[in-house]
Amino acid sequence: MEAASEEAASEDAASEEAASEDAASEEAASLEAASEEAASETAVLAEAASEEEAAVEAEPVEAEPPQAVMPAARARATTAMQIFLSFISMISLVFL
Known about the structure:
Elements: H1 2-58, H2 69-94
Protein backbone atom coordinates (compact mmCIF):
# COMPACT_ATOMS: atom_id res chain seq x y z
CA MET A 1 0.00 0.00 0.00
CA GLU A 2 2.77 2.41 0.93
CA ALA A 3 4.61 1.48 -2.24
CA ALA A 4 1.54 2.30 -4.33
CA SER A 5 1.09 5.67 -2.65
CA GLU A 6 4.81 6.45 -3.08
CA GLU A 7 4.57 5.43 -6.74
CA ALA A 8 1.48 7.62 -7.22
CA ALA A 9 3.26 10.53 -5.50
CA SER A 10 6.32 10.10 -7.74
CA GLU A 11 4.05 9.96 -10.83
CA ASP A 12 2.32 13.16 -9.67
CA ALA A 13 5.69 14.85 -9.13
CA ALA A 14 6.87 13.70 -12.56
CA SER A 15 3.71 15.00 -14.26
CA GLU A 16 3.99 18.35 -12.42
CA GLU A 17 7.64 18.61 -13.47
CA ALA A 18 6.74 17.82 -17.09
CA ALA A 19 3.95 20.41 -16.97
CA SER A 20 6.30 23.06 -15.59
CA GLU A 21 8.87 22.21 -18.29
CA ASP A 22 6.16 22.53 -20.95
CA ALA A 23 5.07 25.88 -19.54
CA ALA A 24 8.69 27.08 -19.43
CA SER A 25 9.30 26.01 -23.02
CA GLU A 26 6.07 27.72 -24.16
CA GLU A 27 7.08 30.90 -22.33
CA ALA A 28 10.54 30.79 -23.91
CA ALA A 29 8.98 30.31 -27.34
CA SER A 30 6.62 33.24 -26.83
CA LEU A 31 9.48 35.45 -25.61
CA GLU A 32 11.54 34.45 -28.64
CA ALA A 33 8.63 35.23 -30.97
CA ALA A 34 8.12 38.62 -29.26
CA SER A 35 11.80 39.49 -29.59
CA GLU A 36 11.78 38.49 -33.28
CA GLU A 37 8.69 40.64 -33.84
CA ALA A 38 10.31 43.59 -32.06
CA ALA A 39 13.46 43.15 -34.13
CA SER A 40 11.47 43.11 -37.37
CA GLU A 41 9.52 46.24 -36.30
CA THR A 42 12.80 47.97 -35.48
CA ALA A 43 14.18 47.01 -38.88
CA VAL A 44 11.05 48.36 -40.61
CA LEU A 45 11.26 51.63 -38.66
CA ALA A 46 14.95 52.00 -39.43
CA GLU A 47 14.31 51.38 -43.12
CA ALA A 48 11.49 53.93 -43.16
CA ALA A 49 13.70 56.50 -41.43
CA SER A 50 16.52 55.95 -43.90
CA GLU A 51 14.08 56.27 -46.83
CA GLU A 52 12.75 59.53 -45.34
CA GLU A 53 16.28 60.87 -44.90
CA ALA A 54 17.08 59.95 -48.51
CA ALA A 55 13.93 61.71 -49.69
CA VAL A 56 14.83 64.83 -47.71
CA GLU A 57 18.34 64.82 -49.14
CA ALA A 58 17.00 64.33 -52.68
CA GLU A 59 14.58 67.28 -52.47
CA PRO A 60 16.02 70.42 -53.98
CA VAL A 61 16.37 73.40 -51.70
CA GLU A 62 13.72 76.02 -52.41
CA ALA A 63 15.25 78.77 -54.45
CA GLU A 64 14.92 82.42 -53.50
CA PRO A 65 12.09 84.24 -55.22
CA PRO A 66 13.11 85.90 -58.45
CA GLN A 67 14.69 89.31 -58.05
CA ALA A 68 11.73 90.92 -59.87
CA VAL A 69 9.63 90.30 -56.73
CA MET A 70 11.72 92.67 -54.62
CA PRO A 71 11.18 95.82 -56.74
CA ALA A 72 7.44 95.07 -56.95
CA ALA A 73 7.20 94.71 -53.18
CA ARG A 74 9.22 97.88 -52.69
CA ALA A 75 6.93 99.75 -55.10
CA ARG A 76 3.81 98.58 -53.22
CA ALA A 77 5.31 99.62 -49.90
CA THR A 78 6.26 103.04 -51.28
CA THR A 79 2.78 103.57 -52.71
CA ALA A 80 1.14 102.57 -49.44
CA MET A 81 3.43 104.95 -47.52
CA GLN A 82 2.62 107.83 -49.90
CA ILE A 83 -1.12 107.23 -49.55
CA PHE A 84 -0.82 107.12 -45.77
CA LEU A 85 1.23 110.31 -45.59
CA SER A 86 -1.12 112.17 -47.95
CA PHE A 87 -4.07 111.07 -45.81
CA ILE A 88 -2.33 112.34 -42.67
CA SER A 89 -1.50 115.67 -44.33
CA MET A 90 -5.14 116.12 -45.48
CA ILE A 91 -6.43 115.41 -41.99
CA SER A 92 -3.95 117.82 -40.44
CA LEU A 93 -5.03 120.54 -42.91
CA VAL A 94 -8.68 119.99 -41.96
CA PHE A 95 -8.02 120.43 -38.25
CA LEU A 96 -5.80 123.52 -38.60
